[in-house]
Amino acid sequence: MRHLRKMKSLAYTAALLMISGLLLPLFSNSVLAQSSKGIIVGTITDPSGAVVDGATVKITNKATNVARETKTSAEGGFRLDAVDPGSYKIEVTAGGFKTISRDSVTVEAAQATTTDFALEVGAQTEVVNVNADSTVILQKQTARAQARSSLAR
Question: Is the pTM of this model over 0.90?
Answer without folding.
Answer: no
